[in-house]
Write a structure and sequence with these properties.
heterodimer, A: six-stranded mixed beta sheet, 20 strands, about 30% strand, B: MetI-like fold
Chain lengths: ~375, ~575
Amino acid sequence: MSNGRPPAVALDGIAKRFGAVVALQRVSLEVGDGEFVCFLGPSGCGKTTLLRIIAGLERQNLGTVRMAGRDVSALPPRERNYGIVFQSYALFPNLTVVRNVAYGLETRRMPREKIRARVDELLEMVGLSRHRDRYPAQLSGGEQQRVALARAVAPSPALLLLDEPLSALDARVRVALRGEIKALQRRLGITTIMVTHDQEEALTMADRIVVMNHGVVEQVGTPFETYAEPASLFVARFVGRMNVLAASATERPGYARVGSMELRHRGAPVQPAGTRLALAIRPEEIRVGAAARASGDNHVVARVSGVQFSGAFARLTLALSGLGVPELECDLAGDALAESGAKEGAELPLVLPADALRVFPEPAA
Amino acid sequence: MARDVAAVIPERLVARRLDGEQVVRGVLAALFAAFLWLFVVYPMLHVLWRSLLDNSGRFVGLANYVRYVRTPAIAASITNSLVVSAAAMVLTVVLAFVYAYALTRVRLPWRGALRVAAMLPLFAPSLVHGFALVYLFGNNGLVTRQTGVNVGIYGIKGIVLAEVLYCFPHAVLILSAALAAADARLYDAAAALGARRVRTFLTVTLPGVKYGVMSACFVVFTTVITDFGAPKVLGGKTSVMATEIYNQVIGQQNFTMGATVSVVLLIPALLAVVVDRIVQRRQYALISSAARPLAPGGGPVTRSALFVYCALVAAAIAAVYVVVLATSLVNRWPYDLRLTLKHYRFDTAGGYTALLNSLETAALTAVIGTVIAFAGAYLVEKGRTPGRGALYLVSLLPVSIPGMVLGLAYIFVFNAPGSPLNRLYGTLAILVISNLVHYFTVPFLTATAALKQMDSEFEHVGASMGVPFYRTFWRVTVPLALPSVIGISMYFFLNAMVTLSAAVFLVAPGTELAAVAVLLMDDAGDTAQAAGMSVLIVIIGLAMRVVYWALLRGVSRRTQAWQATGEQA
């Protein structure tokens, strides 16, 4: 990332309001050359607004946008040098696949043969050469998506912006296209920013994820960092699945009270006893069966209230008696299910490993 | 908390460097604004102002209005207008409702022919419907002579009848659209719950078309109250507001009273339009996208009864055309019924020059009007055009301006001594402009609707690739909107062919129009020539309709490939 060149995109203190509604509160961010960054967050978190500000389709109230060191804040979209794929694809319905892809090249006084060669190359790359003379309406959703992608990168822009590009597709096509987009991005080495509300999409595709909520960046990190070390309770809940227990601080450092029990956790700055906290643990981090007998702290007995077997793994729903907490979810490898002895209605000993119990200094509710 | 943050963030946006495209947009918007100001707002302000002056130009406040309501002969025009409009509205909507119901909800034989018959009145000026009634029921009408019964067609009765004929297609169009947009699931539910037919009609059908009925009422009411042709022919001694303006201005050269009546006439028209806009906005929410279309049905009794009804109505409409055609083709209606073409050798009121002028005016109106309406709608609907809200509102205004009022306003503005705008007066250009304005709102809204349907990101995609907006407009937006464009130009053309009200004030020697010629011929007692001219107007209208129909078919064949939804998706 830091090879001496200025970042491909640098946002500094971007703020945006629509009347009394604040969409973005002073967002600052850098995207490195060739990097694939995802803006991830629930709808209304400001991620699309931020993308549109970068694209110049929306004007911010404060802050600057730089591209490769150049301040583009005052430039119209036409002069910013990016390609964009919208959620709706916005393919021109009256133009064939070829004409769509060539659209951005035709105004550049490029010789006809060069345009042709470039379009052929791109259609080859996205595997649509045989559909070149079709109209968009004659293509499947996934094929339309690829045309939109080819059209966006055809003029060789410095930056590729993707606005929820996969959300209109079937689940299976979506998974396949994730890989394709990522491969195309790697091959072209093009700096890419993608907006999505699908955390799985962000985890599988991004080099770095920018998690946003209420117009604020909650965390910036690699997929692994955001999953393993969520910076806030919001990130913990939004990225991946997470069990959250309402807790309160105790006199004993490193321990928190959950219902009638004290659980040891990862440790956190000492809070006055009684302060409301949230403990969080991922479903796959809960130990059951033989693994539960081995280790020391945080032994709990739960009643299995549901078993969902789905092949590679199984999800248990566990009711913790007497702790005053709602049910926990616990994921097991499929073959560990029988060994664990988990059956609906059975009592199951389990351990909530202290080093997996994250603490957040905010109420769980 | 959000409020505290909002207080820190300034209201204004980061400055954007002025770029060429924004300048082009600004210039176009300024041109559009200038058009609307010069030809809509400014003339209307003039009428308003003139109604506050006396004939020597002194400010007299509301004195003219006081005189208007205190002079019984003129004041009667208000009551007459309201009575005629209300009666015509009720009659038209009831008759059209049954007709539209039969067309959309019942499997009738000859549906296509019945549909076409209902649309015929669109092709003739309103005064032609008045003539037909005179030729049939007037003092020397065919029916009067054959039966010896004089129904007394002159006066309110006759005007209402002519207006019903004239407005019938408008009401049928609106009501058919409302009745066709039914959700079959509601009828299934009603049937499953054991509702009988009358109950289903009252609880499902009527509520479903409530807004359509209201809309039809408003359209008919406004059309009637602003119409000049039919009351001119049939009014006799009964004057309505539209004819009163004519009498005051042309008959008595009393421009201030003309302006006063005009302003009063604006009120009901403006009200009707505003309420109609509100009602229409509600209607959109009624039909969900999951609705299943209702298949036409009906038992044998219903079907025969409704067929007889429709056939009678269609025959009545057709009778208008047959009578007018016959009058123009016989020696002397109804005394000497030998065939002749001599009435087509027009010797007054401009004759064929008037017809050619009408054609030229209609063609220019169609071309220029389509460009302005579509480009205007584009500027308002797409992209950041400065002042788009105001442009939109002013674009809605023309539909509520009665033609007579517009014509009078143009006299004030374009026939004022010493004004540079004077050059337009007495040219075909002023007639084209008055048509553009008079019929502007509907095409503008049609274009807006077509543009709203398009993906709002087309322009953004173009911009991201460095393509200027006008190129994307030309290569994508216009081709996609071609069916609407064709529809818009047809609307302009057909209306320009038959319009009379504004034109009657604006024609000059050398710029006579066919519809005005019909009026003048009739005034001069050349009934048969008036009929002949009417026939030619209708023929040209029908011919253009066929041309447009062929065009539309050609376009839709071409666009089918784009719309073929991917089966493999």
